């Protein structure tokens, strides 16, 4: 994609229909100039503790990783390959069984080679988060990163 052509809804649909994100059934919710929201519907096979019905931490970490990464592309208005250098996830509480998890992430700073991001995962009330995320992505310049 060229500068100024990044379409988060289109990109999210492509990213969440294949591979790990597709398996988890992540879904695009909304976006702005430097933020994006993705959702992870509750599924029984993603539960970490069958006795409580609480989602495992892995799918929530994947949701936040994808969402924070996409917020950097939203801010740059283009996709640029990235490597997760640091992604800290702080769990505040267990997710409510049966509820969809929504991640809202923003990219608050871009440098020549880094994107700084933060995000929140919640299950219906953004003021009562399940987890907070803070991370740094290394931006990679690779002219032919996709085979034509």
Question: What layout of secondary structure does this protein have?
Answer:
Layout lengths: L7 H8 L3 H6 L2 E5 L3 E6 L6 E3 L4 E2 L1 H20 L5 E10 L9 E10 L3 E9 L8 E9 L9
Antiparallel strand pairs: 1-2, 2-6, 3-4, 5-8, 6-7, 7-8
Question: Would you write up a description of this structure?
Answer:
With 148 residues, this protein is of the alpha+beta class. It has 3 helices and 8 strands; from the N terminus they run ααββββαββββ. It has helices spanning 8-15, 19-24, 57-76, and strands at residues 27-31, 35-40, 47-49, 54-55, 82-91, 101-110, 114-122, 131-139. The chain has a 6-stranded antiparallel sheet, with helices on one face. A two-stranded antiparallel ribbon has the order 3-4.
Tally of strands: 8
Q: What strand line-up does the widest sheet have?
A: 1-2-6-7-8-5
Percent range of helical residues: 10-25%
Task: Report how far apart the termini are.
Answer: 12 Å
Summarize the helix and strand pattern as letters.
Answer: HHEEEEHEEEE
- Beta-strand residue percentage: 35-45%
């Amino acid at each position: 994609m060229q500068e100024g052509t990044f379409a988060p809804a289109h990109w999210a649909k492509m990213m969440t229909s294949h591979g790990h994100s597709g398996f988890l059934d992540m879904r695009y919710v909304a976006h702005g100039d430097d933020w994006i929201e993705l959702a992870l519907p509750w599924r029984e096979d993603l539960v970490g503790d069958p006795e409580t019905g609480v989602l495992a931490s892995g799918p929530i970490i994947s949701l936040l990783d994808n969402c924070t990464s996409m917020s950097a592309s939203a801010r740059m208005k283009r996709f640029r390959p990235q490597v997760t250098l640091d992604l800290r996830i702080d769990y505040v509480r267990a997710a409510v069984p049966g509820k969809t998890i929504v991640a809202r992430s923003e990219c608050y700073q871009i440098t020549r080679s880094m994107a700084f991001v933060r995000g929140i995962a919640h299950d219906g009330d953004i003021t009562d988060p399940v987890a907070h995320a803070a991370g740094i992505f290394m931006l990679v310049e690779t002219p032919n990163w996709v085979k034509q």
